[in-house]
Amino acid sequence: MSITAFIVRHGERADDVMLAATPIERVHDPHLTAKGIRQAHVSALRMKSEASGPVVVFSSPFLRCVQTAAEIARVFDCKVKVEKGLSEFLLESWFPEDPRSNLTIHAVSEEAQVQDLRIDLDYSSRCELSYPEDITAMTDRYIHTFSTLLEMHPNDVIIAVTHGYGVQSISEHIDEDTFITELDYCGLTRISRDQSVLTIDYAADASHIETLTESDTQSLQKGEHTTDEEVPQISDTEPLVS
Predict the structure, then answer these.
(1) DSSP 144
(2) Distance in angstroms (rounded) separating the CA atoms of residues 135 and 165
(3) Strand arrangement, sheet containing 80-82
(4) Are 197 and 43 in contact (CB under 8 A)?
(5) At a CB cut-off of 8 Å and minimum separation 6, what does 77 contact?
(6) Which of 139, 159, 187 is nearest to 59 (CA)?
(7) What Å distances lie between residue 88 and 153, 162, 188, CA to CA?
(8) pLDDT value at position 239?
(9) DSSP per residue, 21-64
(10) Res 25: pLDDT
(11) Among 64, 127, 138, 141, who pairs with 10 as Cys (CB 3.0-4.6 Å)?
(12) Burial of 114 by CB count in 10 Å (0-12 exposed, 13-18 middle, 19+ buried)?
């Protein structure tokens, strides 16, 4: 049996802690806080200590996920493949207007996408995204996307950065005894495979984040994390919150 995938929720989103103090240009697509960047980095270090073999990093196109994935990709020295199928639950009450064409990554230059977000511009999303979605369509999308990524990379370790419902849907589909009701930022589900059988080693685990303090940043690899003054603001122009 070998580790075949990690499903990762994004780091702390800015509108969760900064809404009253800091304007967010696209309220439906907030960036990470500095703490969120640190969470992503620590998560990457944990995954690197557990994974063996080639790693492929995929991300939802929402900025908080792409920034989380970019920090993970820095640790693994690879690029981020933006996959629409890992996107947020497009519930109409959350998104009164279709957000698909108004995401931050569509507004920044290709140079910024490559240099700041480490996006692989040669990758084309394998799964489509419909708006609006109900919970059945959302669940089916996450499951189909994950299955597609596994088929594309049978010999690689997949790291899929997504949203709370993505981690929940994929985890509970693989193991019917898994039931996720709470999921912290950068919570991880690790999946192993024995031939065609998938097994969850742990689900929605954020124990590596729970002990993270400000002083922990001193132990991070120099130059591989973002300081409070350097939180990317990339901008050229209720239920289980994801």
Answers:
(1) H
(2) 10
(3) 80-82, 55-59, 157-162, 2-9, 188-194, 197-205
(4) no
(5) none
(6) 159
(7) 23, 7, 17
(8) 40
(9) TS--SSTTS--B-HHHHHHHHHHHHHHHHH--S-EEEEE-SSHH
(10) 73
(11) 64
(12) middle
Confidence of residue 195 (pLDDT cuts 50, 70, 90): confident
Residues 157-177, mean pLDDT to the nearest whole number: 97
For the chain, what is the radius of gyration of the CA atoms? 17
Quote the tokens at residue 140.
Answer: 């089916």
The distance of Cα 133 from the centroid of its chain, to the nearest Å, equals 20
Place of tokens 């990758």: 123
Query: SS3 of 216, please?
Result: helix
pTM greater than 0.90? no
Indicate whether 5 pLDDT > 50.
yes
Give Cα 83 distance to the centre of its chain: 10
Q: Which of 5-9, 95-99, 105-109 has the lowest mean pLDDT?
A: 105-109
